[in-house]
Amino acid sequence: MSMDLTFLGTGSAYPSPHRGASAVVLRTEGECWLFDCGEGTQTQLMKSQLKAGKQNKSAGKINKIFISHLHGDHLFGLPGLLCTVSLNYSPTQPPNCVDIYGPVGLRHFLRVALELSGSQLVFPYAVHELEPTGDQCPPEGLLSPTVTQSSESLHPQERPGRTICLEGESDCYLLFEEKHFTVKAFRLFHRIPSFGFCVQEYDRPGRLNTHLLKELGLTPGPLYGQLKNGETITLENGQVVKPSEVLEPAIPGRKVCIFGDCSSLLGEGGLKACRGADILVHEATLADGFQERAVEHGHSTPSMAAAVARSCEVRRLVLYHFSQRYKPVSLQKDSEEDDVLELQRQAEDALKGTATEVSLAEDFLTLPIPIKRSN
Amino acid sequence: MSMDLTFLGTGSAYPSPHRGASAVVLRTEGECWLFDCGEGTQTQLMKSQLKAGKQNKSAGKINKIFISHLHGDHLFGLPGLLCTVSLNYSPTQPPNCVDIYGPVGLRHFLRVALELSGSQLVFPYAVHELEPTGDQCPPEGLLSPTVTQSSESLHPQERPGRTICLEGESDCYLLFEEKHFTVKAFRLFHRIPSFGFCVQEYDRPGRLNTHLLKELGLTPGPLYGQLKNGETITLENGQVVKPSEVLEPAIPGRKVCIFGDCSSLLGEGGLKACRGADILVHEATLADGFQERAVEHGHSTPSMAAAVARSCEVRRLVLYHFSQRYKPVSLQKDSEEDDVLELQRQAEDALKGTATEVSLAEDFLTLPIPIKRSN
């Protein structure tokens, strides 16, 4: 199953002509998940190679949306994106429910924006809210319940969503488990409650050792399928064959972790969830030299991101959410003081001696996430 | 006083890479007024020539915002624009109140968006709401009072705004009168209540006839100013000079009218307000051939816009708010069926025999509005 990540916006604070506001798309065969939706995400999507032929065809495929926190540069594109997806929905496309995950308050925001703008969608949606803990931000960053608990009735296309609480043991939020993936959220510390997301693909059985099977006298057929599905079989000669005897080691599932804005992880949940990730996408708003200022604003530097990657022993750290002062490499002039490549160097320096690679995200960059080899 | 209009977005329904969502800036010396604020307006502003040197410098100057109606393609850029203006506010700039005018419901939308996103602004703002009449749209387009009457308290930077009702006699809404302008709104018929705006500059006294003044023995000095200000003066020889004797005819004020989405005007207010306008900006979402569909969706065609321009005897009709099917002229291919120039031709045909000129708006087009000659 192919899998890739596309960055639609890699700038912090606000969208600019050279960096969109936060938005990342995780694509697998048949699924298109959006992580954060800053203002302008729908236009970035149209400009991207995700647009397949017809405008917004891929936008129409977005079936799950994850909002890390409610700051405008991660949120304000959501009502417009939903409206445009709806306008461009193919009449032959089944109107599947779009599931939206994010902090408490998201449901009210979307309801008010869609209701007051008179927006009707051709598909249903549900908002599943994560209940933050009181220590995810300074006290002034917490919303009062009177603001988040909307008294209005559901929007006509809204389906009741769940409220998801922290699980004590895992220190994580279990968002859902489906055919190929388990998705969890974990707590981050920021100016307002912020979350990271972990997408874990299930391990898959290893390949059948056909050489061995032939030696046992088995030719390709239904018995192959039974063994692959983990069933023990008995041959005509009475010999019992266990799957473990003829299967190569399992293929470990891929793991992709995407962090919202943060100056630190909170609790053990994130570290546990992200351990061994294939890709860890982490913000690096400002260079190491501005660490004090970054932390004061609830943000990270490359070295801080690298420390998380090191603790989790990830394969690749991808930096994003750069201050708009850092131009994309292609637009950078020699005379410019702020060099985004310096951010990469700082993370690489901090990860010296580890196997972790460092990449810089840019708008419209697509990173394939290859299938792993058997252990 | 110089005066010009800049189009930041000329597309309907949603922003696309080739046409932004609705937004028009009216600039005069020292004032910068924004009409509608679709998603992406802040980025369009940064891309435009209105950005003077430093990013968003001109955005920081926007001191009045007018929202014609609450559809997302005219509204969803507003919270983000205010946040970015705030972020880029110069510390030396006095934090003047931003006055925002729009239909009932706008105050609640902005309050919820700013509150839930934890947005603090460095300047105060006030939302002045226009009370629509029940016949501005089909019944299903009216908001229920439970949706628009927010129970929350004011946002920390919010100042109490006025509720503005229709004035029976003029059939208009008087938004404000200030040093150089009177601004009114008038009613339009659309799928939801929509408004047009009329900016009327005051007439200015004509020039002094210096030839005549010299004949009377007056040399340039304070007496010139008194005459210009409309005061009658008495010369040393006892002769009385009235301003009307030495002033050329008054210079009529300029008038700019900007329509929100509509399939028609409602009542006489708009016609009266727009009479003789220098520029009338009117939507033309679809070509004449699609009139039925346009009207069904509450929109206009070029001929419909031309009919309004003809009734009002305007100098120039500017068409905008084009369906995204109409590419800008510069991007249009010969093979394309939908030709935006055809929209201009249709309006021109409908205005044959009149003195009204027709222009097509495009993103980033700036139209100067020259001072008129004396009558």
Explain the overall architecture.
The structure is a homodimer of 375-residue chains. Chain A is an alpha/beta fold. Chain A has 12 helices and 19 strands. In chain A, the strands form 3 sheets. In chain A, strands 1, 2, 3, 4, 5, 6, 7, 8 and 19 form a 9-stranded mixed sheet that branches. In chain A, strands 9, 10, 11, 14, 15, 16, 17 and 18 form an 8-stranded mixed sheet that branches. In chain A, strands 12-13 form a two-stranded antiparallel sheet. In chain A, helix 11 runs parallel beside helix 12 (340-350). Chain A is globular. The two termini of chain A are 18 Å apart. Chain A binds chain B through residues 13-17, 39-40, 42-43, 46-47, 55, 70-73, 75-77, 79-80, 83-84, 87, 105-106, 108-109, 112-113, 115-119, 141, 143, 146-148, 151-152, 191-192, 324, and chain B through 13-17, 39-40, 42-43, 46-47, 55, 70-73, 75-77, 79-80, 83-84, 87, 105-106, 108-109, 112-113, 115-119, 141, 143, 146-148, 151-152, 191-192, 324.
